[in-house]
Amino acid sequence: MTKNIFENFSNNSPKGESFVPVQRAKYDFAVAYPDPESIPIDGLTNSISEALSREGKDLAIYPDKQGYPPLRQFVAEKLLLERQIPLESNEIILTSGSNQAIYMTAEILLDPGDVVITDDFLYSGTINIFQRFGAKILGIPSNNLGIDVECLEKNIKKLTKEKNKPKLIYLIPTFQNPQGWSLDLEKRKQIVLISKKYSIPILEDDCYVDLSFYGENLPSIKSLDPECDVIYVGSFSKTIAPGMRMGFLTAPEEYLNRLRRILPSGGVNQFASLAIYHYSKNSLPSHIESINKILLNKKNTMISALEEYFGKNAKWNNPNGGLYIWVKLPKHSDTSIAEPIAFNQNVGFLPGVLFSADGFSGKNKMRLCFGFNQPKEIQEGIKKLSNVFYELDYL
Amino acid sequence: MTKNIFENFSNNSPKGESFVPVQRAKYDFAVAYPDPESIPIDGLTNSISEALSREGKDLAIYPDKQGYPPLRQFVAEKLLLERQIPLESNEIILTSGSNQAIYMTAEILLDPGDVVITDDFLYSGTINIFQRFGAKILGIPSNNLGIDVECLEKNIKKLTKEKNKPKLIYLIPTFQNPQGWSLDLEKRKQIVLISKKYSIPILEDDCYVDLSFYGENLPSIKSLDPECDVIYVGSFSKTIAPGMRMGFLTAPEEYLNRLRRILPSGGVNQFASLAIYHYSKNSLPSHIESINKILLNKKNTMISALEEYFGKNAKWNNPNGGLYIWVKLPKHSDTSIAEPIAFNQNVGFLPGVLFSADGFSGKNKMRLCFGFNQPKEIQEGIKKLSNVFYELDYL
Fold first, then answer.
1. Which CATH fold would you assign to the domain B21-41+286-391?
2. Which residues of chain A have pLDDT under 70?
3. How many CA atoms lie within 13 A of B154 on its CB side?
4. Nearest Cβ partner of A96 from B45, B96, B128?
5. Contact A60 B229 (CB under 8 A)
6. Taking the alpha carbons of B286, B287, B292, B297 in that order, is the dihedral positive or negative?
7. Given a cut of 80, is residue B53 above it in pLDDT?
8. CATH fit for domain A18-41+286-391, picks 1.20.1250.20, 3.90.1150.10, 3.40.190.10, 3.40.50.300
């Protein structure tokens, strides 16, 4: 039977090398972990105990497909207060992390050959999702104020003329992953106008907005104009824990209707929803305040270490929030070559090409995440990493 | 912008009426709830407290994409012991309920127009999944020993001749939903031979096997022949709680490789995985024993009530496990007409047509679930339901 195996699979089933579990370095600047010391273990334990004693029998019931209503109400109130997005809780869908929210959005919008416009560099997991639906990714150059809006519109015009109008503009406007910048307010407004002019919806991925070290955030794109079709995605992964797998989305009603029809029948994890809701209603704001102090300290440590060990041939941004520093090494550098060498020295980072919309740019760039290690380790790890780059003649 | 809205969506995005939240009757024989009094609330609370105090910091880490390794190991040992399926834990993928396991299997196997062979009546959620991938469902008649194997092979032969060989045989061989029977051992063996002869994989959905009231189960299809391509799916929804959203699958390596490539990047819910693992390793076997006593009592109560109130014009099976009784009313009955009338009397059930593979058979049939209500309520509810049917002249 095995000889015929390949005819058994669907045409779009991705092939390729077998899955390799992620390996982790001691100095792990690679994966986007929050601070493990700040996981609110006692808070979650108390919350789930309280929730189960009150509502545990409800676990017998297949959960609401859009997700646990009190948690949706909590998200609605948070989005009104902090992102100026007025919502009913029925306009919110809880998802298994932001990943499922982006996946579902791609599923209702994209057909093979469709174009999705993104930043020049973005999280590779998101690129993979769009590619799963056969989409072509068009990355637009950005600087420290975000995407080049003129170039964005020029490309939309050109593609529209070629009868291949983009189906979606995907943006992480706040503390962008991996580049760390926040999209300028004026640019946010211009993009809203472009979205309306060409009738192309925006997917605003606002997963990092809570990790704002200095307290102020630019308005969400979704809040700027209720007439603009913005699908808005958020997450508890960076504020409570990735292992809780809890994200959410909201969108204009026409989109919500399509999304509701593809929801898995069991909805999102009810057990985790109970814990997150009971924890968040009392403790989330103060918890976020405390993790931002910790992250600011870690970021400052990493910036100081870069200044001390990386010298003047490398450049990096100094983000106001989020988890990432985006480093540019001299042009001849190749971070994909350096990555396994650094890993042998117990230092992990992600090479820039992993994030490139075109699949090949970013050879001399890399993403460092300052969330996981403690400050002393950050200092040690950056020193070790600089040694790797010096030996490769990159610094 | 709204006038152009429909051009924004993908061609396969399901349209249709807006989502209506499920309404529940007091006597809820409709949805497949387990006994709410048996949700192991204290056990889960203690388990998650223990797990978080030991491993809570690991929530900071994006979980293993295949799922929490100790829980996979637990599942491997359980499947070896109880279903005679020898496995490494790396051959198991944890999923968000069995729903995601079936969805992912459909995703790697099915292209639009492909045929999936099923029982004549099966869970509508599964039908929906196959249809989402554009598959045609071909239901094969069954009796109280399960699917008609001769008819199965005749159809495969015919379709193969028409160059449309079925891509998948989907079966719930044990305590079938909604029909309650278990597939006869001889038929299991014949189906394995057919699967190999025509090179068509089997998806064995074994979600109900733990709910075995008399302790003995027929061997799993997967255990009968390691050369047969069987994707095997199980779940904790019926033994611990649906709200935990925890299922699992295993499959031959070629299938696992495809499945690993479409796993969501965050894996299954880690928080729920921790609770389930720490609960299950000590308590699952005794918990299953105790819920089976409760369910057997409820089943016997429902059977007695049917005998008392439904008289001789209706027929039903008396299952050895699972959650369902499948009732056949006289031919002129229409359970879709009766359903809203019964609902007004606070009795819920699901009409047979909801389960029919062809979308129209089963007009005079219905599924009763005896899991949710307490015995006294079961008796009351069946009496009320019989009154509805008498007034409609169905009994």
1. Aspartate Aminotransferase, domain 1 (3.90.1150)
2. 1-7, 12, 15-22
3. 8
4. B96
5. no
6. positive
7. yes
8. 3.90.1150.10
